[in-house]
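Quick one:
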Amino acid sequence: MKYIKIILSLIISLTILNVWLIRFDNDSIYRGGESINMIEEFQEYGLNKTSVYIVGFFKVSAALFLLFSIFFKKLIFPTTLMIALFMIGAIIMHFKISDELIKILPSTILLFLSLVLMYLDRFKKT
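Output:
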């Protein structure tokens, strides 16, 4: 179980870091609406540029804390809870602008993986 939690932590955190640090300015089939970068995506949702950086700060921080949780187990639950809440918000935003299901898939997968990790942390002690 320990290794499953580590693998889930790596998948979730590295995915978030990839999106927010490496692919921030890149086009993707998963971007909301017709946007080609993160700032345009947030504008599609009706959010301003400041909100991009606020959300980004918290998502990148949560991803880093999730990496730290591999060594500091007490960080797993609060960090995955924060990530899960952000993924719910992302799903809501995609629905708000009537995105196709393919664009909602990454947020849904990360939400599912976060919920699994939270469950394993709380109910399957190793």
